[in-house]
Design a protein that fits this description.
eight-stranded parallel β-barrel, about 300 residues, alpha/beta, TIM Barrel, 12 helices
C-alpha cells in the first residue's frame, strides 16, 4: 500500500523527476534492437515470451465462447505439444472475468481484467473503484487500470495519484497494472513523470498502452519506463513490473523487448512476475518461429489455431 502524499509532497516528488534525453533514448533503443542472439538463446527467449504473455481479447463482440477458446489456447498454446508452456494470463473485460475464471481454474494461468472506464479513463472515481472491486470479486487475479490522462495532462497529479491509491486498495490481494497510455502523454518527460507517479501510488506494474491508441508500445518509450522502474527500485527498494502492450505482433519484436529489459533491469525481471507482453496476435508468430528454429523450416499457419 502506498503512503498517502500531501499535495506539497506530491508536488515536490514530481518536480524532482529528472528530464529524459530523448535523442539518447531513441539511439539506445535502436542499438539494443539490433542485437542478435544464438539459436539456443533464441529458443529460450521465445519460450520466455510465451510464459510472459497476456493473451488479450477486448472487443464489444466478446462472448463466453470466445473467452473459452482463448482460455484453452492460454493453457495449451499448441495442442499436442506439451513442451510449449502456458501463457501468464488472459486479459478480458470485467463482464467476462467469471467466464475466464471458470475455464482457467487450477491451470496456473491468471485472469486479468481491464477496468476503470477502459480505455478512456473518463468516468467518476467512485465508478472506477467499484468496477475494479467487482472485477476482483468476479475472480480477477490482476486489474489493468487506465490513468486519467486528462487530469495528468492538466497537471492535476493529485487526482491521478489518489485514484491509483483508491483502486489499489479496492484490488485487495490482486495485482494492479497501471496503464499510462503513453501515446497520449506527448513527451518522454511526460512518460517518465507518469511512471514515477504510478509507482509512488502503489502500482505493481506499469504498462505502456491500452492497444486502442496509436502509437502504442514502442521500444524507446519502454526504455524510458524501464529506466524509471530501475531508478525507483534504487530509491525505494520496491521492484515494480513492466508490461508492453499494443502493436507487438512478431517474435522479432518480442525478443527486442526482452533484450532491452535485460540490459536495463537485469535477469531478475526476466519472469512473468515482473514482465508481461500484451498480445492478441503475437502468439502464433512465436509458435511458428519455434517450429522454424527446431525443424529448420516454417510450418504453414494452418497448423496453428486462429486467435
Amino acid at each position: 500500500m502506498a503512503t498517502a502524499l500531501s499535495l506539497t509532497h506530491l508536488g515536490s516528488l514530481m518536480r524532482g523527476v529528472r528530464s529524459v534525453d530523448e535523442v539518447g533514448a531513441n539511439e539506445r533503443a535502436a542499438s539494443l534492437a539490433k542485437r542478435s542472439i544464438k539459436k539456443s538463446s533464441k529458443l529460450w527467449a521465445l519460450d520466455l515470451s510465451i510464459r510472459c504473455m497476456d493473451l488479450t481479447t477486448l472487443e464489444g463482440s466478446d462472448t463466453p465462447g470466445k473467452v473459452a477458446a482463448l482460455s484453452a489456447k492460454a493453457i495449451r498454446p499448441k495442442p499436442g505439444d506439451s513442451s510449449i508452456p502456458s501463457v501468464a494470463a488472459i486479459c478480458v473485460y470485467p463482464a467476462r472475468v467469471a467466464d475466464a475464471s471458470e475455464r482457467l481454474q487450477g491451470s496456473g494461468v491468471k485472469v486479468a481484467s481491464v477496468a476503470t472506464a477502459f480505455p478512456s479513463g473518463q468516468s467518476f472515481t467512485s465508478i472506477k473503484v467499484a468496477e475494479a472491486r467487482d472485477a476482483v470479486d468476479a475472480g480477477a487475479d490482476e486489474v489493468d487500470m487506465v490513468i486519467d490522462r486528462g487530469a495528468f495532462l492538466s497537471g492535476d497529479y493529485q487526482k491521478v495519484y489518489d485514484e491509483i491509491v483508491a483502486i489499489k486498495e479496492a484490488c485487495g490481494s490482486a495485482h494492479l497494472k497501471v496503464i499510462l497510455e503513453t501515446g497520449e502523454l506527448g513527451t518522454y518527460d511526460g512518460v517518465r513523470r507518469a511512471s514515477i507517479l504510478a509507482m509512488a501510488a502503489g502500482a505493481d506494474f506499469i504498462k505502456t498502452s491500452t492497444g486502442k491508441v496509436q502509437p502504442a508500445a514502442t521500444l524507446p518509450v519502454s526504455l524510458v519506463m524501464m529506466e524509471a522502474i530501475r531508478d525507483f527500485m534504487r530509491e525505494t527498494g520496491r521492484p515494480v513490473g513492466f508490461k508492453a502492450a499494443g502493436g507487438i505482433r512478431t517474435s522479432k519484436q518480442a525478443i527486442a523487448y526482452l533484450v532491452v529489459l535485460y540490459e536495463t533491469l537485469g535477469a531478475e525481471w526476466m519472469t512473468p512476475d515482473r514482465f508481461r507482453l500484451g498480445a492478441s496476435t503475437l502468439l502464433n508468430d512465436v509458435l511458428m518461429q519455434i517450429d522454424k528454429e527446431r525443424s529448420g523450416v516454417y510450418q504453414s499457419p494452418d497448423y496453428f489455431t486462429i486467435d
